[in-house]
Amino acid sequence: MRHLAPAALHRITTRIFEAVGTPEDIASDVADVLVDNHLAGHDSHGVLRIAQYLQWIREGRIVPHARPEVLVDTSSTALVRGHMGFGQSVALVATDLATAKAKRNGVAAVSVVDLGHTGRLGAFTERAARQGVVMFMTVGSGGPAMTVPFGGAEPSLGTNPIAFSLPRGSQDPVTLDYATSAIANGKLMLARAKGEPVPEGSIVDREGAPTTDPEDYFAGGHLLPFGGHKGYALAVIADLLAGPLAGADSYSGAVMETGVFMFAVASDAFRPERDYLRAMDAVTARITGVPPAPGFDDVLLPGEPEARTHRARLNDGIPLPEETLAELTQIAADLGLDIDALDVPLPSGGGTPTRRQ
Amino acid sequence: MRHLAPAALHRITTRIFEAVGTPEDIASDVADVLVDNHLAGHDSHGVLRIAQYLQWIREGRIVPHARPEVLVDTSSTALVRGHMGFGQSVALVATDLATAKAKRNGVAAVSVVDLGHTGRLGAFTERAARQGVVMFMTVGSGGPAMTVPFGGAEPSLGTNPIAFSLPRGSQDPVTLDYATSAIANGKLMLARAKGEPVPEGSIVDREGAPTTDPEDYFAGGHLLPFGGHKGYALAVIADLLAGPLAGADSYSGAVMETGVFMFAVASDAFRPERDYLRAMDAVTARITGVPPAPGFDDVLLPGEPEARTHRARLNDGIPLPEETLAELTQIAADLGLDIDALDVPLPSGGGTPTRRQ
């Protein structure tokens, strides 16, 4: 495990995407989001994705130089077409548009269509929240069906993620950010490797029958929505908002038939911001101010684990396994970049990013 | 069990509330919602509540003649103060305001404060959906804490319900409508009576330790959010939207310190309605078009069980236990109303409401 300074990881990520024809501002947007995901502890949405994105660029599934076009632009709504640009960059543009409209008019709804993979939604909703705007976001299931509907024997849903963030002034936002399926692929692989069962209600076997044996999943089984019929309902709503409402299927050129739906409300839409913030302090203190259950140290707010990881990694650097760093170095070398000249390595436990002398 | 015509149940409900000083239009609004809840099969949010509401009127917790006041009214936002009027009536006014704004400007956010108990949220979100508007709604926890946060040993949340409805033209809307707690009180009482365990992850005992024994709940235990940490996050978001964002705590006269937050988007905000409806048909057919799992007849959309019950009860009448009907008759008699003269009883299985000759 090596620890990299966030700025160094940002630099190498930007350079790699620039080397395949991405304008610097777009490459930097993508790097912003990938590094933010690492800082939040969601390494599966970080530089591990670079090889896949480069592959998608070669296949035309991401157009690195594409710039989003705003097709509808009213005082409180916008429809953004990404022309298959990087999902991270297109979604940042849409986030900032929704944020600006909400700050001006109290509320906004934005649809985004024809864009690449966005990754972790919290990166966008938290960006809005840090500007004083409550944001909700969902992404449709463009990919193969993986999740069975409640009462179904075969999959018909994606992982249909949703996110909500609410501002807390200078404190970290409260953020809900998750797939509506019960378990992540990574956790299934881990349980399989350890020979351990997964929690009840996470998966079904290939016949659609409930199981807790991860082997059943890898033998043709499927994911369940989290929380039974309640999570199923949420998965459906996410699918419908990002699909039929956002309207991604109207753009036949889109390679990923998936859309993004965002709504945004200014935190001072209904009363002065100081009253909102005071109430946020009071209510969040009430929610978390109970004794922990056996086996827990604390009651945490949604998003608090990520915020803690963010603070720790800003200080200690982002830990990357040797094999990930080797892959990154190889990708860079293949593109004619010298990763060492970019000052990527940082001593484990080091504080601030290294600077070139 | 007796079956009453919806119109008859509406009439007696309206007359009872009129008899305690409620203007006819408000009494009729309240009856609309209570009868709609029965039609949806949610009898716990129907006429069973009348005795409690009359008690609350006597205590000043509902002001039957109060009319809502619109304190903020912009093109896309509104803040409605209920002056402790019936929650059902105030929320209907707010729903129609949000619907009208969304139809005019694409999107709306509405906060409602200082109102009585609203009951089932789907009654409001479906009303918006039947007018072509996607609606999200949440109600804050004004009452005592009943639900423990994830990792907590004592309760700090309410049951924090949320609802989403999306229109489907002349078909029933897709509706998510539930408490973010894992189990309803009624189901706990039923399990206790049968001596059966409740599903894992529903309740904790008085020490905050997980249990499936309903006796542990009635011995000082508490509810869990549905779906573990994911449902907990949703409960917190619901609490914060309807609380700090909606701003109910700014109205010190309010007896119930709970607010309502609504978000509305026109279904044609991003493309022509016919394209939206076509995509809704396609996506809902894809989601439900898989074989059912063992033990299930069908894969249903969220809200479909309620819609089926609605159709059946429109035809067969609303079943009420004899004791509920006796209580209703007594309440009416105490107010000087002759329930029989109101044509309440309807032969079981009868079709249309009886009419006075």
UniProtKB/TrEMBL annotation, chains A, B:
<dbReference type="Pfam" id="PF02615">
    <property type="entry name" value="Ldh_2"/>
</dbReference>
<dbReference type="GO" id="GO:0016491">
    <property type="term" value="F:oxidoreductase activity"/>
</dbReference>
<dbReference type="InterPro" id="IPR043143">
    <property type="entry name" value="Mal/L-sulf/L-lact_DH-like_NADP"/>
</dbReference>
<comment type="similarity">
    <text>Belongs to the LDH2/MDH2 oxidoreductase family.</text>
</comment>
<dbReference type="InterPro" id="IPR036111">
    <property type="entry name" value="Mal/L-sulfo/L-lacto_DH-like_sf"/>
</dbReference>
<dbReference type="InterPro" id="IPR043144">
    <property type="entry name" value="Mal/L-sulf/L-lact_DH-like_ah"/>
</dbReference>
<keyword id="KW-0560">Oxidoreductase</keyword>
<dbReference type="InterPro" id="IPR003767">
    <property type="entry name" value="Malate/L-lactate_DH-like"/>
</dbReference>
<protein>
    <submittedName>
        <fullName>Ldh family oxidoreductase</fullName>
    </submittedName>
</protein>
